[in-house]
């Protein structure tokens, strides 16, 4: 049975929501593909999606490094990633490596990473202070580290749309560069050859 106009619009809407996490250029391309798909193609795609296993939540894809993100630091418990639609310059999200559904269950080490990032934002980007706020998003709790430069900000403040080059510049300023361990090779000193001393014979 062919899809109604309302069903077609609803499918396009659902597909558009699924591409919101993509970078702007890829999102535009994906949106053009969605808009140009015929009703038959949309119906076929819908059937394929229904038969697939449930898709991983966005933050799990970032943690598993299955989608590109600008990781600026991490510890055993969390990942610090630049927000691509920041509230202010350097806005960073801290994602627990194990999903957390309640704020009270966030490990202390996740907050430690957030505080470390706040200090780095002050040092590298000259922010006056930072707001560390929890947010329930995509079914789990994350932390937002929002740098404050002039007026006070919160998680509900308007977001910006920086260019890729602007984000890359901030990323280069904040990322942790892991030092490669230099292996030192110990050279053994050659054993000194012993000089054989002979008793002098007097004829």
Plain-language structure description:
This protein is α+β, with helices and mostly antiparallel strands and 203 residues long. 37% of the residues lie in helices and 16% in strands. It contains six helices and five strands; from the N terminus they run ααααβββαββα. It has helices at residues 5-18, 24-36, 39-51, 58-63, 108-125, 164-174, and strands at 71-74, 78-82, 92-96, 129-137, 140-148. The chain has a five-stranded antiparallel beta sheet. β1 and β2 form a beta hairpin. The longest helix has 18 residues, at 108-125. It is extended. The N and C termini lie far apart (125 Å). The model has no long low-confidence stretch (mean pLDDT 83).
Q: What can be said about this structure in brief?
A:
With 203 residues, the protein is of the alpha+beta class.
Properties at a glance:
alpha+beta; 5-stranded antiparallel beta sheet; 203 residues; 16% strand
Uncertain regions spanning at least 5 consecutive residues: none
What's the total count of β strands? 5
Work out the strand percent: 15-25%
Quaternary state reads single chain
Please give the order of strands in the largest beta sheet: 1-2-3-5-4
Report Rg: 28 Å
Mean pLDDT score, rounded? 83
Secondary-structure class: alpha+beta
How would you sum up the global shape? extended
**Total number of helical segments?**
6
Helix/strand order: HHHHEEEHEEH
Helix content: 25-40%
| Separation of the first and last Cα atoms | 125 Å
**Major sheet size, sense and barrel closure:** 5 strands, antiparallel
């Amino acid at each position: 049975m062919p899809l109604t106009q309302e069903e077609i619009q609803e499918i396009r809407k659902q597909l558009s929501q699924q591409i919101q996490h993509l970078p702007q250029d890829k999102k535009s391309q994906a949106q053009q593909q969605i808009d140009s798909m015929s009703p038959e193609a949309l119906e076929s795609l819908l059937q394929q999606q229904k038969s697939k296993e449930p898709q991983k939540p966005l933050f799990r894809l970032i943690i598993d490094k299955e989608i590109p993100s600008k990781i600026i630091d991490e510890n055993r418990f969390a990942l610090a990633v630049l927000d691509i639609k920041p509230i202010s310059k350097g806005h960073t999200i801290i994602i627990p490596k194990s999903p957390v559904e309640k704020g009270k269950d966030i490990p202390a080490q996740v907050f430690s990473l957030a505080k470390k990032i706040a200090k780095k934002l002050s040092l590298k980007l000259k922010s006056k202070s930072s707001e560390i706020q929890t947010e329930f998003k995509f079914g789990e709790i994350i932390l937002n580290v929002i740098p404050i430069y002039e007026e006070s900000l919160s998680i509900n403040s308007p977001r910006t749309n920086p260019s890729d080059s602007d984000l890359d510049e901030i990323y280069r300023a904040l990322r942790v560069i892991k030092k490669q361990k230099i292996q030192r090779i110990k050279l053994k000193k050659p054993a000194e050859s012993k000089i054989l001393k002979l008793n002098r014979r007097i004829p």
